[in-house]
Amino acid sequence: MEGVVFNLQRFSLFDGPGVRMVVFLKGCPLRCKWCHNPEGLKKNPQMMFNAGRCIGCGDCVEACPNGCHKMIDGLHAYIRNNCTDCGKCSEGCYSGGLTYTGKYMTAEEVLKEVKKDVPVYKESGGGVTLSGGEPLFQADFAIEIARLSKEAGINTCIETSGYGDSDKLRELIKYMDRFLFDYKATGDAKHKELCGVEQKKILENLAIINEAGVPTVLRCPIVVGLNDNREHLEGIAATAKRFDCVVEIQLEPYHRLGISKSHQLGVEPDFEGEVPANEDMKEYCRIIEELSGKKTTIS
């Protein structure tokens, strides 16, 4: 079983209980306007170019088989129209100006990396978390990683938008200790406007998780001008109250890191907003906790 991974993040403290390794899988069916991980949208490996790190050595000019890189008056020009994302230009780029994001790995290779930190998981109550992109986009690969992890006695979590095949989700549930389930917008129309897909399928899948009784944290990005309104706060609270599996609500303030990553991919970001004020986030927590009766924090 092979899939595409774009990051293995060790010692994470924010993606489930304890200290964890987060496995980021490429590919996502959503197109959220504020996407924080644009390098995870497409399934195939991609080239990223950080001009600020380029030292103008010119090694990439020699390495690229398609003439995508040129030195003009001592400055590096990257001609993306010719790029096939082969990654050869990044192999000798020791400055980090060119980064090949995405790597084909087997589930066993991923597990080998995950198992390196088993003593840390045991000490902290941590484990492995599947994230993305959207892990359900590579559902069979995600299922296999989760199965192997459970066989190895490793705690498993998944961070998901909930948008994916329900039968695959049912299979994945067998190997999951916890879901970190995104709640991005309230209502089909608004969800499609902001994220590119309707919410109906997502809530149907949350109902499946609820029926299975797997503990779930509702994770809710808050984006100024897009979903920081009373209707959405009430929607978060009502959803948390409706599903008994929801044990906690986490509000995630929008951040701007996705903007620079979009530029490195050669695309313009759909949204460049401001970071929510901490006092506003605290007030949203108070409102949602009061309405839902469930613990609500800022993550």
Fold and architecture overview:
The chain is of the alpha/beta class and 299 residues long. It is built from 10 helices and 13 strands. It has helices at 59-63, 107-114, 118-124, 139-151, 166-173, 188-195, 200-212, 230-242, 257-264, 278-292; strands spanning 2-12, 20-25, 46-49, 69-72, 75-78, 98-101, 103-106, 127-132, 155-160, 178-182, 216-222, 246-253, 296-298. The strands form 3 sheets. The protein has a 9-stranded mixed sheet with strand order 7-1-2-8-9-10-11-12-13. Strands 3-6 form a two-stranded antiparallel ribbon. It is globular, with a radius of gyration of 20 Å.
Which descriptors apply to this entry?
nine-stranded mixed beta sheet; alpha/beta; 299 residues
Given the helix and strand composition, which structural class is it? alpha/beta
Rg calculated over all Cα atoms: 20 Å
Find the count of extended strands (DSSP E, 2+ residues): 13
Low-confidence regions: none
Mean pLDDT: 96
Biggest β-sheet strands, sense, barrel: 9 strands, mixed
Count the helices. How many? 10
Placed side by side, the strands forming the largest sheet appear as 7-1-2-8-9-10-11-12-13
Strand content: 15-25%
* Helical fraction: 25-40%
Q: Could you give the distance between the termini?
A: 33 Å
Shape descriptor reads globular
